[in-house]
Amino acid sequence: MKLANLCWLSSAVLAAQSFLVVANSETEEVRDEAMKDACPVRLESRGKCEEGGECPFQVSLPPLTLQLPKQFGRIEEVFKEVQNLKEIVSNLKKCCHDCKLQADDNRDPGTNGLLVPSTGTPGEAADNRVRELENEVNKLSSDLKNAKEEIDGLHDRLEKLNLVNMNNIENYVDSKVANLTFVVNSLDGKCSSKCPSQEQIQSRPVQHLIYKDCSDYHAIGKRSSETYRVTPDPKNSSFEVYCDMDTMGGGWTVVQARLDGSTNFNRTWQEYKVGFGNLRREFWLGNDKIHLLTKSKEMILRIDLEDFNGLKLYALYDQFYVGNEFLKYRVHIGNYNGTAGDALHFSKHYNHDMKFFTTPDRDNDRYPSGNCGLFYSSGWWFDACISANLNGKYYHQKYRGVRNGIFWGTWPGVNEAHPGGYKSSFKEAKMMIRPKHFKP
Ligand SMILES: [Ca+2]
């Protein structure tokens, strides 16, 4: 800044010289006038003139005072201002330097808490930072990959859960209910056969018994085949049943009977649910009642058939249970014994065991393209569709066309019928149940 000051002074001197030239020309005029004695400027010759006419002269000037503009008076002020600014800049520079050192220290802390002097250049520090960021990005990428794998795993599990459909759940619940029922019934049977108080109770005529089924009436000496009122489940109301006290020791509760075609069996779900027909002739007892009876005790099933040739045969199954409506009255049929053949377990592809009940208005069968109940005009535990159907149409003689009559697939001669030929029909059919532990 001092240099600039000097430059400015040089400019002032130059200005003064210009002023001097002007003053010089004015001096010539002053000399020509009368004022020459008073003029303090003198021009004098000094020494000899040279050949070309050039002579040395000396000019004497009076003391010179220059009037400068007022602004020049602020130069000192500006100097001070500039000095202040310079100090401020210097402080800022120092501060900036300190900041940089601090930043470097923060970036490279010593492992034991001491500050490690930075030996690297700013470029290396930047590289380190980039590497740190790269590591962070790699870690995040790895985390994302793990999260994706976890999501994929959850998605697979969800798909597997979707495969567990309602049918699987129903099958499971159904089988559990059946198992529990058999356990309870067997305990019940043991108690009634061993418990002496039960015999004492039965021997007292004044004691009121709950008659769960026809075997209880048989137990108190009833031997007449007719209708009786039973209460298989005290929580549900009692109802009338027809008891067969003659066949194979008696004590049978009849759940279905065909003998003359007086009752139409082409019925709805609701009708099969509550039952229909005449207990003394033809009827379906009702799926709800059959469920309660088979739930109350472990039951066996007997089927009696007679054709129009007078042939009488029977099938005996050592287990019979029908689930409730929620389980679509699914049937459990035990092992076969008898003379009519095991038509309910006809083959792998025709098996009525463990099948749901189907009616013309409620398709629960295993035939995917239609309703077996609609096709065969009845309610039954259809497979896809039949090797037996005791609720088929009652034909009074042989018939042609769709085999929608009463049908038992193992009946003698049934397989000899030609596809378009006559089909045999049945004169009588009957389904009845009795406790497994019944003793005539
Ligand atoms: Ca179907």
TrEMBL record:
Keyword Signal included in the entry's annotation: yes
NCBIfam families documented for this protein: GGGWT_bact
Coiled coil: 123-164
Domain of life (superkingdom): Eukaryota
Name of the protein this chain belongs to: Fibroleukin
Organism whose genome encodes this protein: Loxodonta africana (African elephant)
Keyword presence, Secreted: yes
Primary localization class, coarse: secreted
Record-linked Pfam families: Fibrinogen_C
Localization (cell): Secreted
Residue ranges of every copy of the Fibrinogen C-terminal domain listed in the record: 205-437
Signal peptide: 1-15
